[in-house]
Write a structure and sequence with these properties.
single chain, two-stranded antiparallel sheet, 13 helices, 4 strands, 67% helix, 3% strand, globular
Length: 358
């Protein structure tokens, strides 16, 4: 008679323990959650100590004006990242909208019976619609044709930039001031003029940011955006039309990119094909630095705006103290890496504390 020997139970891995010092861990978590504000304060203190011109009223207004363009771009990108996607085409969309608007203002629309010129309001609307159209194409490529967001938007980066160059055969539309006879004056208002001492571009940034905060925190659409990024399968099972949400966020990103391109073009007073080149990197960096997780489902618009301030104030501070553009690129890259590392550290610390309290 043979004896059956039961197999030895498989060794079990012990559950990772929580932090040894919960009070210290909570303090560290609080610091990580507010890291963007901490970095911003440290930057202002550092550059103020180096240069007496950094905190002057005129320089603060100028830096905030520069931040406005990147912040608007980053707000649009944040909607995409919250769903777990990525949009590398926003800089090229901004350039395309710039060339379309510049062409309408400078040369008008050629028709068989003559040339038609549009008012500035119509030109701005057309530029934003161009951004929305390109964003919709991105969304359709990703949802209908199952192209990975990275590849779809990378391809659109080249397509949009190329179409912008074709619009003027690689040339520049040099003067967008318009004339009374054509009824197209006033484009400078959004990029050059001020209201109550604050640039109009900054007011536009405030309006866009406020609208984005309301959408992400107070509307069903905003909750669905977070749901799609948090767990797409669960979102599908709960009845959320995931594809529609994805298309919508890419349309929002395209509109924000086009608006940023129009603001930049208005500030320069001319439209050229390379407008906003590499601006997509600043936008993604601002979103990540502001606490938006690249995996989706986590992030805030306010954090993104603060991240844009960090990127902008850092860039202008480096210029003010005479740091070369090559070192500026190195510093920006280091900031992006730092943002990702600290975001991962925050998630690990949160998980550790949650296990301890469970």
């Amino acid at each position: 008679m043979t004896e059956t020997i039961a197999p030895a139970p498989a060794p079990t891995r012990p559950e990772p323990a929580g932090p040894r010092n919960p009070a210290l861990a909570r303090a560290a978590l609080l610091l990580l959650q507010g890291r963007t504000l901490v970095v911003l304060v440290l930057l202002v203190a550092f550059f103020s100590a180096i240069s007496s011109e950094y905190l002057t009223q005129s320089n603060l207004i100028l830096m905030t004006k520069h931040v406005a363009i990147n912040a608007i771009l980053a707000i649009g990108v944040t909607f995409v990242i919250l769903t777990g996607g990525i949009d590398l085409s926003v800089g090229s969309i901004a350039g395309l909208a710039s060339m379309i608007a510049g062409g309408l203002l400078f040369t008008g629309l050629a028709l068989p019976g003559g040339t038609l010129f549009f008012s500035v309001a119509v030109v701005i609307l057309v530029g934003i619609l161009v951004g929305a159209l390109v964003g919709a194409v991105n969304g359709l490529l990703i949802t209908r044709f199952r192209v990975a967001p990275f590849i779809a938007t990378l391809g659109m980066l080249y397509v949009a930039r190329g179409v912008g160059q074709l619009r003027s055969d690689g040339g520049t539309f040099p003067d967008l001031s318009g004339t009374p006879e054509r009824g197209n004056q006033g484009f400078h208002v959004i990029g050059v003029d001020s209201w109550l001492g604050i640039p109009v571009a900054v007011w536009i940034m405030v309006v866009v940011a406020a609208a984005a905060v309301v959408v992400t925190t107070k509307t069903p659409f905003g909750r669905r955006v977070y749901s799609v990024g948090g767990n797409e399968r669960a979102a599908v099972l709960s009845g959320i039309r995931v594809n529609r949400i994805k298309i919508a966020v890419y349309v929002i990103s395209g509109c924000c990119a086009a608006l940023a391109g129009l603001l930049l073009t208005s500030e320069l007073g001319a439209a050229y094909p390379d407008t906003a080149t590499t601006y997509e990197l600043n936008a993604i960096a601002a979103a990540v630095l502001g606490g938006t997780a690249l995996s989706g489902g986590r992030g805030t618009i306010i954090g993104t705006v603060m991240g844009a301030f960090v990127i902008g104030f850092l860039s202008d501070g480096l210029v003010l103290v005479g740091v070369s553009t090559f070192w500026q690129s190195v510093v920006k890259g280091a900031v992006i890496i730092f943002a990702v590392i600290t975001e991962q550290a925050q998630q690990r610390l949160q998980s550790s504390l949650a296990r301890r309290t469970a």
